Amino acid sequence: MRLRVLGCSGSIGGHHNRTTSFLVDQDILIDAGTGVGDLSLAELTSIDHIFVTHSHLDHVDSIAFFLDSVGALRPKPVTVYTTGPTIETLRKNLFNWDIWPDFTVIPTPEEPWLRYQEIKVGEVITLGGRKITVLPAIHTVPAVGYHLDSGKGSLVFTGDTGPNDELWSVVNRIENLKFLIIETAFSDKDRRLAELARHLCPSMLGEELVKLQRPAEIYITHLKPSEIELTMQEIEELSANPQPRLLLNNHVFEF
């Protein structure tokens, strides 16, 4: 499997800051933040599946523009995989005819551009021999992470989450784990805000990584654009082994 980072920032500002989205091979998106907008029409048309971690705008906004751009160019609907509560939020608050059209009935209910598939924690979806397992996440809205397994290696993306013991009990059983992408949305001066928002800051990240019992390359995502240097400096001061690295746009993982 090949994962290309389209966006990994906590917000926008400058050509390097795009919100969360990863392209897996040519046909799968993990989240659909603003980074999707950098893909060509041909690349967009090849996408058949979108796995959404949760309903926050920085992870879903490009679904709307993506469908508007290429829905008519595709022979079948795009499938959005996510939890039941997230589906209901997308129906109610995004694809509701007020904010954006409901593409589950366009051009017809029988042949729409969008369909939803509800998923649950622990479920494994297999697409062309690639396994995607739904992982637990703890956030201010119902949320999940994903474990991508090619058979040769695995990558874990935590999604947006605060401290999460259940996640580590699952991750520590992944024998072929190669990569871990984990969020750190705030610097330590905003630890209280991180706790309220159910995100991580560097000191909380250190507390979480102690629970990881598998060797893996660790990458940090979802940093605030105005605090990247401060947050990474605080992360570099952790005693974590191996040392986490900053995730960047266009980073490619092969596993």
Note the beta-strand portion. Answer: 25-35%
Relevant CATH superfamily: Ribonuclease Z/Hydroxyacylglutathione hydrolase-like
What's the order of the H and E elements?
EEEHEHEHEEEEEHEHHEHEE
Largest sheet: 7 strands, mixed
Which stretches are low in confidence, meaning pLDDT under 50 for 5 or more residues running?
none
User: How many helix segments?
Assistant: 7
DSSP, total strands? 14
CATH-defined architecture: 4-Layer Sandwich
Number of domains: 1
Looking at this protein, list some descriptive labels.
alpha/beta, Metallo-beta-lactamase, Chain A, 255 residues, single chain, 7-stranded mixed beta sheet, globular
Structure report:
By secondary structure, the chain is of the alpha/beta class. It has one domain (2-252): Ribonuclease Z/Hydroxyacylglutathione hydrolase-like (Metallo-beta-lactamase, Chain A), CATH 3.60.15.10. 24% of the residues lie in helices and 25% in strands. It is built from 7 helices and 14 strands. It has helices spanning 41-45, 57-70, 84-93, 165-171, 191-197, 202-209, 228-236, and strands at residues 2-7, 21-24, 28-30, 49-51, 78-82, 114-118, 124-127, 130-136, 144-149, 154-157, 177-183, 217-221, 245-246, 252-254. Strands 6-5-4-3-2-1-14 form a 7-stranded mixed β-sheet. Strands 7-8-9-10-11-12-13 form a 7-stranded mixed β-sheet, with helices on one face. Strand 12 (217-221), helix 7 (228-236) and strand 13 form a beta-alpha-beta unit. The protein is globular and about 55 Å long.
